[in-house]
Design a protein that fits this description.
The protein is α+β, with helices and mostly antiparallel strands. It has eight helices and twelve strands. A hairpin with a 5-residue loop joins strand 8 and strand 9. The structure holds 2-oxoglutaric acid and fe (ii) ion (FE2). This is Oxidoreductase.
């Protein structure tokens, strides 16, 4: 394990992996693997999202959250464990806490269009009828981030000495979710619990997360020396990090680094923050049993065998989304 302490997350160019130049490709795999073995986060450019789409998507997301609560509430649907549509303020809390985060969000899931019977496992998406363009913008972003995520997983498969396409069949029509988040303005601090934060410290559940440039500061990650460091991506970058499922599969070789979104200083508490992570999940039957190649004398097997579906179910209960 590399002991290096990063002051900021490493930046990589996804085009180095996809352009067909073998030495650039190999270097990308090495740099990504090293970063994920250490800090678990990278900033990526040439991810495929255009500025135009990003702008339009944020515009429709802002428009959705600016609506009256009664309108948003129509899209909070019972029985879906918050996996589609709107999830209201304070509903989700980090694992191990009970105070809800200071956020509301909207989930868009996989649209299965190729006759794959997995379709019956997924609830249908719900889209706000007040903002027709919301559907097109979120689905286009979903597909673009999913494609970038597949490339990242190809690179990781090589790093892990698996076949380059190891993850392909496992993420095909996977249970990924695009989450548009609004960290809402706080005008009266008496109305929120003293220990409430925008997003309390947590690891992501999924294989990898692709995070579209957040609109304001606040994201921090816990470095291995227990210092919180700020994450800032340049306008043309997205942040891509390892989630708990991949950490588990690799028996902690790839690190799912704890991160949080801190509250802004008092004078900015009345402002909103928006971010749009794409949580890349496999199909629920993916086996997350630690890879043999990641188990050895120095690193004995750390986790019970489990499928992705079982792991997700357990975590949704732990964070208050599943009752
Ligand atoms: O809003 C952000 O910048 C990060 C959000 C996050 O970590 C999450 O939703 O899991
Ligand atoms: Fe997260």
């Amino acid at each position: 394990m590399s002991e290096k302490l990063y002051d900021e997350i490493p930046s990589l160019d996804l085009a180095d992996f996809t352009s067909g130049d073998a030495s650039k490709k190999a270097q990308f795999v090495k740099d990504l693997g090293e970063a994920y073995n250490n800090i678990g986060f990278v900033a990526i450019k040439n991810h495929g999202l255009t500025d135009e789409l990003t702008e339009q998507l944020y515009a429709s997301v802002k428009e959705f959250f600016a609506q009256p609560q009664e309108v948003k509430q129509q899209y909070e649907i019972e029985g879906l464990s918050g996996q589609r549509g709107y999830v209201g303020k304070g509903k989700e809390h980090a694992k191990g806490r009970s105070t809800g985060d200071l956020k509301e969000f909207y989930h868009v899931g996989q649209e299965v269009t190729d006759g794959d019977p997995i379709k019956s496992e997924y609830p249908d998406n719900v889209f706000p009828k007040e903002i027709p363009i919301f559907k097109e913008n979120t689905l286009t972003a979903y597909q673009t981030l999913e494609a970038a995520g597949r490339q990242m997983l190809r690179a990781l498969a090589i790093y892990l000495d698996l076949k380059e396409d190891y993850f392909e069949s496992r993420v095909h029509n996977g249970n990924s979710i695009l989450r548009a988040i609004h960290y809402y303005p706080i005008t009266n601090t008496d109305e929120v619990p003293d220990d409430a934060v925008r997003a309390a410290a947590h690891g992501d559940i999924n294989l990898i997360t692709l995070l579209m440039g957040a609109s304001a500061d606040g994201l921090q990650i816990l470095r291995k020396d227990n210092q919180w460091i700020s994450v800032t991506a340049l306008p043309d970058q997205i942040v891509v990090n390892v989630g708990d499922m991949l950490e588990r599969l690799t028996n902690n070789r790839l690190k799912s680094t704890v991160h949080r979104v801190v509250n802004p200083p008092k004078e900015l508490l009345h402002t909103s923050r928006y971010s749009i992570p794409f949580f890349m999940h496999p199909r629920s039957d993916m086996d997350l049993t630690c890879l043999e190649s990641c188990i050895n004398e120095n690193n004995p097997k750390q986790y019970e065998d489990m499928t992705a579906g079982q792991f997700l179910e357990e975590r949704l209960r732990e964070i208050g989304l599943k009752k």
